[in-house]
Amino acid sequence: MSDEDKQSLEEQMIDEEFQRLLQDYLNSNHRRKVDVITRAFNMAREAHKGARRRSGEPYIMHPLAVARIVSKEMGLGSTSICASLLHDVVEDTDYTVEDIRALFGDKIAQIVDGLTKISSGMFGENVSAQAENFRKLLLTMSDDIRVILIKIADRLHNMRTLSSMAPTKQFKITGETLYIYAPLAHRLGLFAIKTELEELCFKYEHPEAFADLSRKIEETAPERNKIYEHFAVPVVKALDKMGITYEMRARVKSVYSIWNKMQNKGIEFNEVYDLFAVRIIFEINDGIDEKKQCWDIYSAITDIYKLRPDRIRDWVSHPKANGYQALHLTVMGPDGKWIEIQIRSRRMDDIAEKGFAAHWKYKENRIEEDNELDKWLKTIQEILSNPNPNAIDFLDTVKMNLFSSEIFVFTPKGEIKTLPQGATALDFAYTIHTRIGDHCLGAKVNHTLAPLSQQLRSGDQIEILTSQSVTPQPEWLNFVTTAKARTKIEASLRRQRRRIAENGKNMLDELFNNEPIENTLLNKILQSYKADNKEDLYFMIGNNDVSLPANKNAFFKIKEVPEKQDNLFVRYMKQAMSAIKKSSPDTRSEKKEVEPAPFSLEPEKSKINLKEVYQLTEVKFRKNFIVPACCNPLPGDDVFGYVTEKEEVEVHKRSCQTGLKLKSSFGDRIIAVAWGDYRQYSFLASIAFTGIDRIGILSTILAKLAEDVVVNIQSVNVSSKDGIFEGLFHLHVHSAEEVNQLCTKIAKVDGVSTVHRSAL
Q1: What does the DSSP 8-state code read for residue 551?
Q2: Between the CA of residue 246 and those of 13, 241, 283, 322, 348, what are the distances in Å?
Q3: Considering only CA atoms, which of 357, 358, 339 is closest in space to residue 347?
Q4: According to a count of CB atoms within 10 Å of the terminal CB, is the N or C end of the chain lower?
Q5: Are 480 and 489 in contact (CB under 8 A)?
Q6: pLDDT tens-digit map of 417-468
Q7: What's the Cα-to-Cα distance from 400 to each of 397, 404, 441, 683, rounded to whole Å?
Q8: Are 200 and 173 in contact (CB under 8 A)?
């Protein structure tokens, strides 16, 4: 094919993709502004003319794809579509923001400018570029949230085309995506996009596990279909009698969700009981309340099947913070399997998939995107009120607040309160009021007495018991998770200490008839009570930690202990070190702390060889590889390398949470590595197992392990309670595969119910 023919075909492909974009837009509920979208497309097409992506396709296909995601999958309008088409123009071509402002106005120019700043900002040497990126990303939200939505769409298309990247680049991008973009998409209610981002990350991080689970899901499909069909027959009859328009389908969990559950619970694929959920989506009937329709369907299903009461989730009456609404229930199906059912209206389903943007679809008239965004912005601006000045800390703080799971609990009067996952009864008390927290004596959770430290669960009703004689204690700091409660307790403890110290000072002054105490005598008193300073002395007296004598003359009889003098050399060194410390800037906040490795694997000592595959970094390093304690990878695990400031290579599992942060924050120090020959060397690993206790089961397990091979067990820890035993082996192995083989052996022992590789 000639070059002219290729160019003609490419031009046709570009035109067809643009027509698909226009069709997506015209199918929406936004005002018709085709002209401005066409002008933006023509400008982007001309600006990127001749440029190509790494995959070889014309570059303009990328902004077109981003614009289609923004329009079709997020439900945004012409302003966002134009900004998507132009999002790389300023960064990659000679056009400026002023050019865009002149042609398309302030709003589109402002969004493009925000996107350009995120992509091409200048960062300090000791600050992670990605953390600073994320900070700018979030701060830009305060001006226009469309910046972050387009950035998420941009990342989604990059993930869809990630196969053209080198492995090292893939690790960096998947790390950023799992750490930043997927949780952010979830928080903004973009469930479908969040799920796809996670799925794509998993596919590139763990290709073998992804392929294996995908195959197992496909192989078990006939059995799931059979269970669903048996369940559906009576439900369809009941819903048809109600005269509603609906669709019902079984939705399989994503591969990533299944794998995540297997990892977190230490279970095998066949032990994941909730592989699929039944989703019922109904059309809203005129004149019938949407919430009532949900509960009518709920009633029809529970008339047929036995309900599991502890698994009801009413997100209809109390939507999640990201706008999600649905009624969840779990029933026992006809095949003896628990089946989760999600009941949603069509409106709720759109919001669940597209987030807040889907609200606009249900406006009666054509809508203006800008007006709706103003309302949306108010729901998420609060988090940006006091950003941490340090980029790394800021990222952690925002992630903790923005992405943490939430629970919903009730006051005795039924008022709903939102708290972070892990919040305690004491956190709840401070959420109600500081005075209630400060005088909290205990709590009733669901009408039962509970300690202050009890963690709360969604749906709990809490009554706080107070007493004026109760005040915050230092141990309370161990009972709280929310920043508000911790701050209030610390402030109260400081006030208490000041009051006690003031009382102690008065007691000492009274002993001396309120006459001034000479410094020499005061030093004697400090030495006598082993107090560091006056404030500590006053507190010890006021808190009754020490007893004052009946007469002040007792203090005059104390012999003064001479202060120990350093020799001349020691004093000289202390002065020198102090001078050095003062002249050196404190850079601790700028450095990334990495947990120290328990041991290192050096070729000249152990011959352990990690074969370098790609090295896309200028850093030159010695062949000194460290296996960190955070994830303790074994030969055969999916791993990547991180080049430390000492130019050593830390080897992390690709699923390691510490490694995830490194990939997100230090992408230029990530390298791809592969295991070399490891068969003659051993690594420490752990295997956890549980089962029904019986006499001799441990010896049976040990005998099973010793079959065929000699196993080097470092330690055994087994406990039994109420007929159930739990065991943990620490043993030396040669690979992850060997651990799997040992797990299989233990699983075959009669009485063992679960067995899995455990973290050290």
Answers
A1: S
A2: 38, 12, 6, 25, 13
A3: 358
A4: N
A5: yes
A6: 778 888 999 999 999 999 999 999 888 888 888 888 899 987 778 899 988 8
A7: 5, 5, 29, 34
A8: no
Catalytic residue positions? 91-92
Q: How far apart are the first and last CA of the chain?
A: 60
Return the structure tokens found at 72.
Answer: 């079709």
CA–CA distance, 187 with 402 (Å, rounded to integer): 7
Beta bridge mates, 692: 724
Is domain 220-373 classified as CATH 1.20.1250.20? no
Q: Counting beta carbons within 10 angstroms of the beta carbon of residue 238, is it exposed (0 to 12), middle (13 to 18) or buried (19 or more)?
A: middle
How does strand 313-314 pair with strand 327-332? Answer: antiparallel
Domain 404-481: which CATH class? alpha beta
Query: Which bin fits 319, alpha (ψ -120 to 50), beta or left (φ > 0)?
Result: beta
Residue 218 CA to residue 447 CA, distance in Å, equals 47
pLDDT in tens, 637-668: 888 888 887 778 888 988 888 888 788 777 77
CB-CB contact of 441 with 467 (8 Å): yes
For the chain, the average pLDDT equals 78
**C-alpha to C-alpha distances, 82 to 69, 70, 586, 622, 647, nearest whole angstrom:** 13, 10, 46, 49, 45
Are 688 and 758 a contacting pair, CB within 8 Å? yes
608 phi, psi to nearest 5 deg: -70, 130
Look up the CATH number of domain 3-194.
Answer: 1.10.3210.10
Nearest-10 Cα torsion for 8, 11, 13, 19 = -140
Model confidence pLDDT, tens digit, residues 268-319: 888 787 788 999 999 988 778 889 999 999 999 999 999 888 888 998 988 8
Task: Compute the distance between CA of residue 464 and CA of residue 462 in angstroms, rounded to an integer.
Answer: 6
Question: Superfamily assignment of 683-758 in CATH?
Answer: ACT domain (3.30.70.260)
DSSP states of 217-241: HHHTHHHHHHHHHHHHHHHHHHHHH
Contact between residue 669 and residue 681 where contact means Cβ atoms under 8 Å apart: no
Lookup: tokens for 447: 């009408």
Among 664, 674, 623, 678, which Cα is nearest to 647's? 623
